[in-house]
Amino acid sequence: MTTYLETYSRILVVVCDNIGSSHMQRIRSSLRGKAALLMGKNSLMRKAIKMSAAEHPEWTAIMPYITGNIGLVFSNEPDLQKIRDLCLESKVPAAAKNGTRAPADVIVPKGITPLEPTKTSFLQALNIASKINKGTIEILQDVPLIKKGEKVGSSEATLLQMLDIKPFQYGLQMVAVYDNGTVFDAEVLDITNDVILSKFVVGVGNVASLSLGLSFPTAAAFPHVVLNGFKNLLAIALETEYSFAQADAFKDAAANPVAAVVVESSSAPSGSSTAPEPVAEEKEEEEDEGLGFDLFG
Predict the structure, then answer these.
(1) Dist CA 283 CA 168 (whole Å)
(2) What pTM did the predictor assign?
(3) CA 93, 164, 89: angle at the middle one, nearest 5?
(4) Is 230 left (phi over 0), alpha (psi -120 to 50) or beta?
(5) Which end of the chain is more exposed for a tag (fewer CB within 10 A), N or C?
(6) What is the mean pLDDT of each run of 10 residues along the chain (297 residues)?
(7) Domain 106-165, CATH class in plain words
(8) Which CATH number fits domain 2-91+171-189: 3.40.718.10, 3.30.70.1730, 3.90.1150.10, 3.40.50.300?
(9) Nearest CA among 14, 59, 8 for reference residue 181
(10) Residue limits of the Large ribosomal subunit protein uL10-like insertion domain (predicted)?
């Protein structure tokens, strides 16, 4: 482990629950050449870090995360999102086993099942509404069978096995990231450039609003200050004889609004002109014709 810590500068701390040996071998193969996965006893890993704490005190930052069924993915890849994606791609579907904690909600979908009619009593014991349809059992509505975090019971596990439903996916789960002595939550890897840009735009808007409210000049508020100044000058020009090049068009429109409307309508596309609706005229003619008849025709 000490060799890995000296060779690699970035570490992904992962949880390796419910992963078999063959599954772990496939994960190691997918990471080969890009990263190295280290599994071992937690006490030995903590001891190796403590023995090197004098020379490398930054390594002690990952010690609080070395608990449970933990693993360390070492890499020098500058973009850890690629390594994270490789680890997450290794998830495989798995059946629900009796006594295990559900990592997600399990919902049995409604519809035709491969169960024989003799299994109706089994479904009734689980309070699942069903009926017999063409020699098979049909579940009438979606059934929330197990909630996230609950233990899987023997009846639920048996039902899912009979329906051939594998509701869970097991693989490496990201916990934390170590990067050159700094440890942060693995959710930071989900932050993209678009997210950063949107947060920056919101921050600039907040700075501009605060600057305008306090009358304190900043670069963020400068466009708004210029626009407000132009509005003030335009208002003065419209109310007085004073004018400038940018205000001439507004003054002409205010002096002759009809001409401005004509110019605007002539500049619009020809297809946008609305013709009178003949349907409405026909309806009016029919109503006028109806006025010539009395009650008895």
Answers:
(1) 64
(2) 0.58
(3) 10
(4) alpha
(5) C
(6) 88 86 86 88 90 88 89 89 85 83 86 84 84 84 86 87 85 87 84 84 89 85 85 85 80 72 56 48 46 43
(7) alpha beta
(8) 3.30.70.1730
(9) 59
(10) 96-165
Torsion of CA 284, 289, 293, 297, to 10 degrees: -110
With contact defined as beta carbons under 8 Å apart, do 36 and 4 qualify? Answer: yes
User: Running DSSP on this structure, what letter comes out for residue 148?
Assistant: T
Name the pairing type of β-strands 36-38 and 111-112. Answer: unpaired
DSSP 170-185: ES-EEEEEEETTEEEE
Contact 141, 129 (CB under 8 A): yes
The values of phi and psi at residue 182, to 5°, are -110, 135
Residue type for position 181: G
Side chain identity, residue 96: A
Phi, psi of 280 (to 5 degrees): -65, -35
